[in-house]
């Protein structure tokens, strides 16, 4: 089966791949992202750019907190599964072994999980760039020998 | 095992490595980044976050455009060199040998990268100690020769070798690392899992801290001179006359080693002594009196090992006969004399070079290289300790003829070392202890402080009263380590702040008294071998003079360098007289 994603085919540069896990009110969603990187060391923050039409965008606006779960090179299938279906159509969280941490959901099988709180946003037209403070994080020590999942692995 | 992430670096946010390149007001700036990503697809936009402490940030803001050059995994060493380079080092590309091309918009880029994105800034966002830059990608170039190659990842940039990583992989998979970590943490508990605070303490800055650090400049452009590399042997046979039969005999030794094909002459004042020396060194001939040597057609060049006060007249005599001259330091005892000599040599079209061995001393050259490559971070202090029990007599004890005491005679060497290692000083202050040798007119000890707008200071202590012992003659102290330079040694020592493996291991030994007993100063030392044949720089300086002559070019260290050394020495004397800080004029302003 040939799988396609505009985010993979239109990518002009290599990038790591992760999941944004967002919980708002009584619902949660997970979405594959590669438009994410560090912002600053003080205040310790990152940015993630999300398509305005997505369900995740809607939930981020509502909830204000999210988890960035970075995937390792053996999790391409997971990236495809969470990146090609909308959360509006299917509960993607149902198939994942997520565990709750204070305000966020973590994916223990990921390389790392980082809980973030949105501080501000930047309008980029089709996308919104969320700038978020890093609240806490978790590292799966048994996976630290693995490299990040990259766009070119998909 | 799930462990708390203690810093931002634990979160693995830094991933694909790229060299961000831009042309700033001071030239090309390069920065190795593991933080960039594509933010939108159509139009394609890239977001980067340069650290405000690094000159790349200002260069991008200034040029409004930059390139992101994705680093191939096979270029790890070059990337590591850029990652480690001194933050305020100007011209990083030249120092590290990066070859930068330039696109039609004037954006410098690395054509050997996997892929290059040429970007125009759309917006900048003040987000703390880094600036977030959103840029439109205006062009993408893919390196066809590297298609299919993986990019360098941040964990491989800072991690160990391939074998080391393989071993670590096995230990991680089997859980051995977890056991070791638990044991280690019992001995030394890790910091509390406060991600933001730990990140700030390890590598973050508040606005006040950023302003404080940047108050001495984001770049350090203070170095006006660079050390000389080992020169090639002269291309043809040269007729060289050594003038002076005291230190001049050392010149003979240096010249013989510098150039095997040499017609060597000696010039002295006493015929019997000069003839005896000429015979013993196998000279092609000898002269009594400088004028005869300068006038002889077999002689193309002269080296002058004469008292300081005779430099001007001697150089003028040699240059009047269109002979190239290597004159001992200091170039003269006054700036007016120095200017007159430089002017005359230029008018006649001959080489005038000043014998400053410090410019060619291998330890200084390698230390400058190590500083540029970031071994000690930003250099903060230079300590120079120049001492040797000596009772000068004759012209050296006469302040009019020598131009001063130990500061003029020996200090001038270390002024050159200061300029090479640290840069140009901004101010000088001097003081001295009581005179011990009252038989000499010049000072027999001297103490001098320098400071610079670039944020470093230097302290020199010179004495003819007692010996230094086995101490280094120069210590360069930086934010990440210290360099020890020893005269005539085939090595220099580097003491990094970061503990070596053995230091790390010993820090775990309990009880503490046993740890103390096991510790040795050498365990934290990295000894760097110097593979030069000439450890002093004397031979190289003579060879450079002869090579420049035979290649019809100027030597790498022009006489203006020595004129500047003299200017700083004289400022030191002014500071001693006035007991005030004296401002050193900027290079070329006087």
Explain this structure.
The complex is a heterodimer of chains A (154) and B (590). Chain A is mostly beta strands and 154 residues long. Helix content of chain A is 14%, strand content 44%. Chain A has 3 helices and 9 strands; from the N terminus they run H-E-E-E-E-H-E-H-E-E-E-E. Chain A has helices spanning 6-9, 55-63, 76-83, and strands spanning 18-24, 27-33, 36-41, 44-51, 65-70, 99-101, 104-106, 112-124, 127-140. Chain A has a single domain, classed as Electron Transport, Fmn-binding Protein, Chain A (Pnp Oxidase, Chain A). With 590 residues, chain B is an alpha+beta fold. Chain B has 3 domains: 1-219, Pnp Oxidase, Chain A, CATH 2.30.110.10; 238-355, NAD(P)-binding Rossmann-like Domain (Rossmann fold, 3-Layer(aba) Sandwich); 360-536 and 566-583, Dihydrodipicolinate Reductase, domain 2. Chain B is 34% helix and 24% strand. In chain B, strands 24-23-22-21-17-20-19-18-25 form a 9-stranded mixed β-sheet. In chain B, helix 12 packs parallel to helix 13, helix 13 (335-348) packs antiparallel against helix 20 (559-578) and helix 16 (406-421) packs across helix 20 (559-578). The mean pLDDT of chain B is 95. Chains A and B meet through strand 3, strand 4, strand 8 and strand 9 of A and strand 1, strand 4, strand 5, strand 9 and strand 10 of B.
CATH topology title of chain A: Pnp Oxidase, Chain A
| Percent of sequence in beta strands of chain B | 15-25%
Taking the sheet with the most strands of chain B, its summary is: 9 strands, mixed
Percent of residues in helices of chain B: 25-40%
Between the first and last Cα atoms of chain A, what is the distance in angstroms? Answer: 13 Å
Coarse morphology of chain A? globular
Biggest interface between chains:
A-B, 54 and 65 residues
Structure summary, number of beta strands of chain A: 9
């Amino acid at each position: 089966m040939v799988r396609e994603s505009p985010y993979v085919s239109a990518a002009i540069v290599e990038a790591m791949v992760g999941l944004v896990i967002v919980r708002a009110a009584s619902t949660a969603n997970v979405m594959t992202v590669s438009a994410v990187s560090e912002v600053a060391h003080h205040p310790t923050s990152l940015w993630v750019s999300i398509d305005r039409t997505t369900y995740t965008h809607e939930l981020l606006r509502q909830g204000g907190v999210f988890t960035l779960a970075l995937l390792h090179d053996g999790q391409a299938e997971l990236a495809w599964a969470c990146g090609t279906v909308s959360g509006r159509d299917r509960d993607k969280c149902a198939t994942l072994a997520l565990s709750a941490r204070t305000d966020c959901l973590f994916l223990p099988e990921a390389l790392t999980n980082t809980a973030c709180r949105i501080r501000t946003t930047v309008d980029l037209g089709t996308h919104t760039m969320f700038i978020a403070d890093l609240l806490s994080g978790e590292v799966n020590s048994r996976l630290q020998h693995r490299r990040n999942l990259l766009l070119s692995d998909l | 095992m799930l462990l708390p992430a203690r810093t931002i670096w634990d979160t693995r946010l830094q991933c694909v490595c790229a060299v961000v390149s831009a042309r700033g007001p001071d030239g090309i700036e390069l920065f190795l980044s593991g933080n960039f990503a594509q933010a939108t697809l159509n139009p394609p936009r890239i977001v980067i976050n340069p650290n405000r402490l690094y000159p790349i940030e200002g260069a991008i803001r200034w040029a409004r455009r930059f390139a992101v050059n994705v680093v191939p995994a096979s270029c790890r060493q070059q990337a590591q060199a850029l990652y480690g380079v001194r933050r305020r080092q100007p011209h990083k590309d030249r120092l590290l040998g990066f070859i930068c091309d330039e696109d039609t918009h004037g954006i410098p880029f690395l054509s050997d990268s996997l892929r290059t994105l040429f970007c125009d800034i759309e917006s900048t966002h003040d987000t703390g100690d880094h600036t977030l830059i959103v840029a439109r990608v205006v062009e993408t170039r893919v390196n066809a020769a590297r298609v299919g190659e993986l990019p360098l990842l941040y964990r491989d940039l800072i991690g160990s070798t391939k074998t080391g990583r393989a071993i670590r992989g096995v230990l991680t998979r089997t859980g051995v690392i977890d056991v070791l970590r638990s044991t280690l943490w019992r001995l030394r508990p890790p910091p509390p899992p406060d991600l933001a605070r730990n990140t700030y303490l390890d590598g973050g800055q508040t606005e006040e801290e950023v302003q404080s650090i940047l108050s001495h400049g984001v770049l350090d452009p203070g170095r006006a001179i660079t050390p000389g590399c080992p020169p090639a042997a002269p291309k043809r046979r040269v007729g060289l006359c050594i003038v002076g039969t005291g230190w001049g005999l050392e010149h003979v030794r240096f010249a013989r080693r510098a150039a095997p094909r040499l017609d060597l002459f000696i010039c002295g004042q006493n015929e019997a002594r000069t003839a005896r020396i000429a015979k013993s060194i196998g000279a092609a001939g000898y002269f009594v009196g400088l004028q005869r040597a300068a006038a002889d057609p077999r002689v193309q060049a002269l080296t002058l090992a004469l008292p300081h006060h005779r430099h001007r007249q001697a150089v003028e005599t040699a240059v009047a006969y269109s002979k190239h001259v290597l004159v001992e330091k200091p170039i003269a005892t006054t700036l007016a004399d120095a200017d007159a000599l430089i002017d005359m040599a230029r008018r006649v079209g001959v080489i005038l070079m000043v014998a400053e061995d410090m410019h060619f001393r291998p330890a200084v050259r390698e230390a400058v290289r190590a500083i540029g490559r970031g071994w000690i971070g930003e250099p903060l202090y230079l300590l120079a300790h120049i001492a040797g029990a000596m009772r000068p007599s004759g012209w050296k004890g006469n302040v009019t003829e020598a131009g001063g005491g130990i500061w003029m005679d020996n200090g001038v060497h270390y002024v050159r070392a200061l300029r090479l290692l640290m840069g140009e000083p901004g101010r000088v202050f001097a003081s001295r202890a009581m005179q011990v040798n009252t038989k000499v007119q010049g000072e027999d000890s001297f103490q001098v402080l320098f400071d610079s707008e670039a944020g470093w200071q230097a302290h020199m202590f010179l004495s003819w009263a007692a010996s230094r012992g086995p101490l280094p003659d120069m210590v360069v102290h930086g934010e990440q380590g210290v360099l020890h330079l020893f005269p005539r040694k085939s090595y220099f020592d580097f003491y990094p702040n970061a503990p070596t493996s053995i230091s790390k291991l010993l820090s775990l030994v309990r009880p503490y008294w046993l740890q103390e007993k096991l510790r040795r100063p050498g365990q934290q030392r990295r000894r760097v071998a110097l593979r030069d044949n000439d450890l002093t720089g004397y031979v190289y300086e003579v060879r450079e003079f002869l090579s420049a002559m035979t290649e019809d070019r100027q030597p790498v260290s022009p006489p203006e360098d020595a004129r500047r050394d003299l200017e700083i020495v004289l400022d030191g004397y002014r500071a001693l007289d006035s007991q005030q800080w004296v401002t050193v004029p900027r290079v070329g302003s006087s």
